[in-house]
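Case study B.
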Amino acid sequence: EIVMTQTPLSSPVTLGQPASISCRSSQSLVRSNGDAYLSWLLQRPGQPPRLLIYKASNRFSGVPDRFSGSGAGTDFTLNISRVEAEDVGVYYCMQATQSPSTFGQGTKLEIK
Amino acid sequence: EVQLVESGGGLVKPGGSLRLSCAGSGFTFSNDWMNWVRQAPGKGLEWVARIISRTAGGTTDYAAPVKGRFTISRDDSKSTLYLQMNGLKTEDTAVYYCATSDTTPGAFDLWGQGTLVTVSS
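Model:
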């Protein structure tokens, strides 16, 4: 199975400042159609995960434009341009290119 | 409203069985490939099982830790997904979420609220 590795595992940030989370896969996530099925999810405390980014760089409906995704092959990044209080939680990357779908360990974003 | 609602969680002894349900509404359930994902207390997310749409073959797939013990199924007439869990172990203790890729390929864009399964003597 494809192993997903996130860094850092914890990220204290100041409100209004940028944040960045990396995700590396043990194999390329590019499918034969050229798409990489890499997504980013946010799980706020006590809530189910919610989708932020799909196919590496596409923002899901209703997601603020301060969130952006980039990357290709095995290296992907989630960027938050200016962190707001509501962004606190655990961020997961997930791959669905190859079954079984696998998740990164999670990155806890907290306010300094 | 587009939503998934899980039910059926609870406390069960090791070796016991439980059946989870996930009712979908507000979307064409029969078209969607449905998944179960679990989260042990204080831990990360773990994919458990998937069933594809009947029109695509209806095949199932399982994570290694649950293969042979869990069975995923669907009743499209009721827009409901199931997870039959047999031979439960303490390490199966988790919140179980159903999730699907309703509008986005290769990503879980719709999640239920989850149902807690506790396996303990």
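Chain B touches chain A at residues 35, 44-47, 50, 61, 63-64, 97, 99, 101, 103-109, 111-114 (CB under 8 Å). The remaining cases will be described in the next quarterly update.
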